Amino acid sequence: QFVTAVLLVPTLVTVIWMSAFGGSGLDQAREGIGALADGISDSSLALFQMLEHLPFTAITSFLAIALVLVFFITSSDSGSLVIDSITSGGKTDAPQSQRLFWATTEGVVAGVLLAVGGAAALNALQAGAVSTGLPFVIVLLLMCISLMKGLFHELALIRIEEAKT
Fold it and tell me: Mean pLDDT throughout 145-151?
């Protein structure tokens, strides 16, 4: 159940989303329809430029904004939960006020970065996130190898048990 809910469902939704809307955007660009025909001048508006030429523009634009908000809010909440757990020594039942503090601090820092540095600060933040993600990829690959070794070990133990019976 966990694998289905965490890995398969989001992957399936992403594939459907990218196929439907990505395909529509590519078709519009190829056929010279709308603002996408001239190339993407502002990537933050590309989704809405594509949705302009589809039916139910107001509804799909509202849903797109709602989904982006849910993504950012969920990501922020997850980040606050992790920071709260780390600073409380691994406790999962830390005081609610502590988590509120970290969520507020995270929001204030993001707001100050955007207000002071604007797009340059955002680009620097993105570059930093990508740079810190590289070592994590190596850790994840090692974890995948460890998982495979563990699964093969368990399979060998099951086969030994079956052979005894």
Answer: 95
Task: Report d(CA 17, CA 12) in Å as an integer.
Answer: 9
> What percentage of the chain's residues is helix, strand, coil (to nearest 5)?
85, 0, 15
Please state at what angle helix 96-164 crosses helix 57-87, rounded to 10 degrees: 90
Structure tokens at 69: 């908000």
pLDDT of 44 above 80: no
Confidence of residue 31 (pLDDT cuts 50, 70, 90): confident
In 3D, which of 122, 80, 124, 119 has the Cα closest to residue 102?
A: 80
pTM reported for the whole predicted model: 0.59
- Name the burial class of residue 25, with classes exposed (0-12), middle (13-18) and buried (19+) by CB atoms within 10 angstroms of its CB: buried
Cα angle for residues 11, 137, 1 (degrees, 5° grid): 35
For residues 123-159, one letter each, b for 16 or more C-beta atoms within 10 angstroms of the residue's C-beta and e for the rest, the string is: eeeeeeeeeeeeeeeeeeeeeeeeeeeeeeeeeeeee
Q: What does the pLDDT average to over 4-30?
A: 86
